[in-house]
Amino acid sequence: MDIKEISQVGKQVLQNKKALILGISINNSYFKEENLTKLLLWATENASSVYVMIPDEPAVHTLMALGKSESEAVKIARSKSNNLENKCLAIVQNHKLPPVTIVRWVMIANNEHYLRALEIIRQAYVDFDFFAKEVHATTLNVLKHAGFENPTDEQMRNGLEFLFKELAFITHSDLVLGQEKTAYVYHSTMKVLNNLIEGQYTFFKTEGVGFITAE
Fold first, then answer.
1. Which CATH number do you get for residue 172?
2. Is the pLDDT of residue 145 over 90?
3. 40, 64, 65, 152: which has the fewest Cβ within 10 Å?
4. Tally of domains within the chain
């Protein structure tokens, strides 16, 4: 893996072989079998615990923002998430890798640390303009990339809800998963996430979570 950017905690996680979280997106062509295999081989070699985060429930909001009905979105998100989970588990088995944990939202939706984080992030979006602008810009960019130059308020609300849930889990993943330190691995940089983890906002601080941008 080619590491493009890494936080201080991310470095500590790799040096001490702590827990890595691999972020997997259901609608991203990057996550073909070749790249999933490369990710899993690298992660299991460099961490004591590997988690594969498949945001099935949050993805429902993204699919609704892209024009799907709620029932369609639930069905598509479940099907694509199941497919990704099966691919990852098959890679682990075929390459005889150490076990990995697949994180689906049903596992964390009622976790007290996750719920508290979700509350903090939603309230920060209301209270802090700079944070709100970055979250809004991140969501708008996703929708524009999908072909919606002028998304409606409803599309934005759904897109924001996806981001709130994803940020809540990642930034509190050490507490949610019961790990000393975790690092979130993704192939591209999400500025608002990195800023949260690096303590760029006065309302938020974490010392047990890092990030790694690698592909």
1. 3.40.50.11710
2. no
3. 152
4. 1
What confidence score (pLDDT) does residue 9 get?
97
Alpha carbon 208 to its chain centroid, in Å, reads 16
Which tokens sit at 69?
Answer: 């009905």
Distance of CA 151 to the CA centre of its chain: 23
Q: What residue numbers bound the domain in which 124 lies?
A: 3-214
Categorize the per-residue pLDDT at 6 as very low, low, confident or very high, splitting at 50, 70 and 90: very high
Residues 105 and 89: their CA atoms lie apart, in Å, by 17
